[in-house]
Specification:
- By secondary structure, this protein is an alpha/beta fold.
- The protein has two domains: 263 residues, 3-Layer(aba) Sandwich (Aldehyde Dehydrogenase, Chain A, domain 1); 179 residues, 3-Layer(aba) Sandwich (Aldehyde Dehydrogenase, Chain A, domain 2), CATH 3.40.309.10.
- The chain is 42% helix and 20% strand.
- Bound molecules: NADP nicotinamide-adenine-dinucleotide phosphate and magnesium ion (MG).
- The site of magnesium ion has 7 residues, from strand 3.
Length: 462
Amino acid sequence: MKAHDGMYIDGAWRPAAGRDTIAVVNPADEQVIAEVPAGGAEDVDAAVRAARAALPAWAATAPAERAARIAALRDVLVARKDEIAGTVTAELGAPLPFSQAVHAGVPILVAGSYAGLAASYSFEEKVGNSTVYAEPVGVVGAITPWNYPLHQIVAKVAPALAAGCTIVLKPAEDTPLTAQLFAEAVHEAGVPAGVFNLVTGLGPVAGQALAEHEGVDLVSFTGSTAVGRRIGAAAGAAVKRVALELGGKSANVILPSADLARAVAVGVANVMGNSGQTCSAWTRMLVHTSQYDEAVALAAEAAAKYGDRIGPLVNAKQHARVRGYIEKGVAEGARLVAGGPEAPREQGYFVSPTVFADVTPEMTVAQEEIFGPVLSLIRYEDEDDALRIANGTVYGLAGAVWAGDEAEAVAFARRMDTGQVDINGGRFNPLAPFGGYKQSGVGRELGSHGLAEYLQTKSLQF
Ligand code: NAP
Ligand code: MG
């Protein structure tokens, strides 16, 4: 695969300060497909300086001009969508149809939504005898994970551009090629030099240097709760803004009046898509005791049918980790009804679509984020019991409720401690705020709420 041997800083590809590299591996066959430079503190410093220097001019551009650049960026993502999908498939392992529809498709929607918002947002407001201006927070340090490699970049960079911020991005070490393609797209879209900068590298080296850099005003992080906690602590000590999109253990609550077959089918697909590597996946399916056995049979059948359509996990570490969780589920007394810990293929980091029955709410597989194709079915006695189980984790990112009547589902959803709930299947909305209650994070992404994260107010009194 094509790769740049440099960092995208101040509008050009520049050699890295050091000689370290990252080998990019295709997780479907474990072959090295490219190498990219592993940046360090010097590269991060150069990128932050470029972003700082570009800030005054970019912050002062008219919102309509920023909207035009974001629209141009969206158009480049459209023109290069096949290349993007192929690259995500090569370095993440997602099956090509999923890469085309989701990994390439969703960022186009999100970039388009911010082209619209940049043009229509009120950056100025009258409040009594004051004029309140919404001004960019400044230089953004964006740190992103590998599971939706382009979406997570666009969900930060598009609103930051719309707000008038400048950016330094440190993408995940597993998926740097998608990030390099994105930098090319930004360049083609005519975004001025220094407004967007890319430093590839390792989390504890380049990521940490970026999060701790004095020239960064806001750290926007998506990834594990463990790393997010550290980034939040460092940002707090430096009195720096921080946005954290962390893990989840979301509940799919099927009320007795629901269409059980549909709720189970959609629920299984939700967990198995992207090989279970989705922070908002509904990994706990809650079913009333009267329908439990039927739901288990339906879920086992749906998972078995999924079979070969599932891609590998991203790397050897995640492969070992997920299989370890499946073994732990068995050891704690959950009943395997589909899949299991054995690797289904000789080569590649594959895990079979796995379904556990007889899961109780306190088991490890019901509490911890597994980040693999593993679904747990939990039984409940009544609605209050279902609510206790649904809310009974440290997380609160997403969820689903199914009922015969929408109002019944809404009433239940309003009692859930979580940031997003899909009612009877729902549909993705790029304008709806996305983010966590409890330990799933701080702040929101997408839509106008996501834009507001990159703005600070200044009030003038008259
Ligand atoms: P991670 O380490 O939190 O990675 C997220 C990003 O943070 C990557 O760019 C990573 O760089 C960087 N990073 C790592 N350590 C850092 C540090 N000390 N300072 C600054 N940046 C740092 O996540 P992971 O190891 O890839 O995945 C582990 C688990 O996290 C998964 O099993 C899953 O449970 C969870 N996860 C959640 C999400 C989500 O969307 N909520 C996404 C991915 C993973 P490197 O790529 O070099 O590590
Ligand atoms: Mg890889």
